[in-house]
Amino acid sequence: MNAVPPSDPAEATLTARVMREIRQRIAGRRLQAGARLPSIRALAETMQVSKSTVVEAYDRLTAEGTIQPRRSSGFYVAGPLPPLSLVDIGPRLDREIDPLWVSRQSLEAGEETLKPGCGWLPADWLPQQSIRRALRSTARGQPVELADYAAPLGLPPLRQLLARRLAENAIDAGPDQILLTDSGTQALDLLCRFLLEPGDTVLVDDPCYFNFHALLRAHRANVVGVPYTPTGPDLARFEQALAAHEPRLYVTNSALHNPTGATLSPLVAHRVLKLAEQHGITIVEDDIFADFEPEPAPRLAAFDGLERVVHVGSFSKTLSAAVRCGYIATRRDWIDALVDLKLATSFGSSRLSAELVYRLLKDGSYRRHVENLRLSLARAMGPVSTRLAALGIRPWLEPRAGMFLWCRLPDGIDAAAIARRALARDVVLAPGNVFSLSRSAGSFLRFNVAQSTGQRIFEVLDTVIEEEGNAGQGAKA
């Protein structure tokens, strides 16, 4: 018989919280179909609620068919499980701060929509003529280049060239230590499949690239954030997290951090590696913004020699998002297992994309392009920063290079509310809590300076900030 609904509103809220926790465990596959739920006493102690609250929650979940009781045995997950939904794993978020929602808004936007919150360059900033020449050159090549699968590790001459490029950043990786992938995201996905089991803990920076959250959620990892500073992760909090959570991985950017634009200092890099060694964790270093740097910053993989650091790169940001080509550089004894996973999940990477990238790197056109790109971004950074400051939007720091400005809004202005208002005017923004696991960046926005040169963006920002400020004053009154 179902319990009588609680008359105390506080008790009703606690009951809903327990139900939400059980649903999230089921959605995240931490509780499989047929699995036994924690006892009423155990869950009450874990969630610090009364046993009657858990009884009420279990009764309601039974009534809706989510769980089922077994006499003298407890409560069990009813089967079969619903299809996996990333949105239902972890706390339910407003769509404006859901990373998948922001990605979809940016990707689905029409030509009339402005995208200062997106993470890629405008099409006219990319080397379109060079890509066309490379396409024509590839079309004149051997038939197998257009029709056949790539070798398991990927195109050999491109891997040789990448090994030389990595050496310029003091990363010692032979061609046999480099595995080509279809993107940086696929590289991270393969590494998660290789290194993680559901329930493993992974450290990320707070804030960090928002798709780290979504990807790790898909792998059912327990994600823990570490505050990020202008020189790297907060070392004291990093060490505390290692001791408290015993993580399997730490996923980070070492150079031109996304979203902050910060750069890892040598001192912090050495300390991070020392702590990683002491606690036996692996570091995945996402370095897809490497070519935006005029001078290389410290790389964890260079200091470590690829012993416990895995290095990931891609050409999607600098060359073309349509030419999908990334790579993993790692220790030799891991390569075969990663190749097997790549074959099992995709059978191979794009040979055509690899051929295009190889031709662009080999003929020098890519080098000339990135030199011009750095100059263009440097020229855009100052004016965009100045125009934002005139609206009371101020950078957290002045990045040494790259395309991102991590900016604080005027006092009392909520970034998610601003993003909602701006979207109604066909401007896609990236509110800070998209990047923050702790939801502590509610007053921040990330701006892509290459996508923020139009006058209308600043007019919309001025309007929505004024509207939100007036709404806040009205609420106080």
Strand content: 5-15%
Q: Describe the main β-sheet briefly.
A: 8 strands, mixed
Estimate the helix proportion, in percent.
40-55%
Separation of the first and last Cα atoms: 48 Å
Q: What is the C-alpha radius of gyration, as a whole number of Å?
A: 24 Å
Secondary structural class = alpha/beta
Strand order of the largest sheet: 3-10-9-8-7-4-5-6
Total helices: the number is 17
Mean pLDDT: 89
Count the beta strands: 14
SSE topology sketch:
Blueprint (H helix, E strand, L loop, with lengths): L8 H19 L12 H8 L3 H13 L3 E4 L3 E4 L21 H10 L19 H12 L3 H5 L8 H13 L9 E4 L2 H12 L5 E6 L3 H9 L3 E8 L2 E2 L1 H11 L3 E4 L13 H14 L2 E5 L13 H5 L4 E6 L11 E4 L2 H14 L5 H12 L2 H25 L4 E2 L8 E5 L6 H9 L6 E2 L12 E5 L6 H22 L1
Helix pairs in contact: 1-3, 2-3, 5-14, 8-13, 10-11, 16-17
Please give a structural write-up.
The structure is a single chain. It is built from 17 helices and 14 strands. With about 475 residues, the protein is of the alpha/beta class. The strands form three sheets. Strands 3-10-9-8-7-4-5-6 form an eight-stranded mixed β-sheet, with helices on both faces. A four-stranded antiparallel β-sheet has the order 11-12-14-13, covered by helices on one side. Helix 2 (about 40-45) packs across helix 3, helix 5 (about 130-140) packs across helix 14 and helix 8 crosses helix 13 (about 330-345). The radius of gyration is 24 Å and the shape is globular. The protein starts with 8 loop residues before the first helix and ends with a helix.
